[in-house]
Amino acid sequence: MSPGDGAPDPLERIAAALERLSPAPARAPDFTAADAWLWHTDPDRLAPVAEVSRVDLALLLGIDRARDTLLANTRRFARGLPANNALLWGARGMGKSSLVKAVHAAVLAEGGAVKLVELLREDLPSVGRLLALLRAAPAHRFLLFCDDLSFSHDDEHYKSLKAVLDGGIEGRPENVLFYATSNRRHLMPRDMIENERSTAITPSEAVEEKVSLSDRFGLWLGFHPCSQDEYLAMIRGYCAAYGLSIDDETLRAEAIEWQATRGSRSGRVAWQFFLDLAGRHGISLKGA
Prior knowledge:
By secondary structure, the protein is of the alpha/beta class. It has two domains: 193 residues, P-loop containing nucleotide triphosphate hydrolases (Rossmann fold); 53 residues. It contains eleven helices and seven strands. It has a seven-stranded mixed β-sheet. Helix 9 crosses helix 10 and helix 9 packs across helix 11. The radius of gyration is 24 Å and the shape is elongated.
């Protein structure tokens, strides 16, 4: 039967099917409803976060240089001044993601109108759609945050990240800044870098595209393992902030034993010890 006999045109049927399959573009939410948002896909949407899990900036000890640099950069961005994308890299558990969230809270407390938007690493291919959504809300400024960012040798997600860092011909939206944390300075394992260099016909070009990705961050903030004194100072800081009284000799002995059983010493281990200590002393951390 021909289209002229009243049957639907095959091309029209195909077009209608494709329209049903393709998701509708995400609609911008009311950004005044929250200061922090989570980006979800399938379908695309921004979900408000009523309360962000974070610690106070004053409790992040032993990372003074990184703290001051990131805070100053974020303050400039909040005021509409030029600011750099930042890569926070280094030892695990030393407060990289905590610093991003604490700096955001500090800038909000100062009156800076900046929204925190978290993007999961596995959702990087959708970042172009997210940027379009944020670009369409020029009245707001956004910190786009990706935690634990890294790539394997066959991972193509890094290409999507260039949309944030370079922005193609459109450029990165003026109202968006990108902060990422990673255990790796070059965002990929060193053994993979060396392996690709050794097997490539042109070694200098083999990993340049991936390795140079980290060069696109204007700020590199390094986090290094803490000393025992810094570890103990972190715990004492938590005790003071939450009103937990304990003699220094007992605290020192228990804290060192705790980190010995963990086989590591970091800000995260210090916080985990403090949670155990607060629980044993009947100290509630809610509303503190």
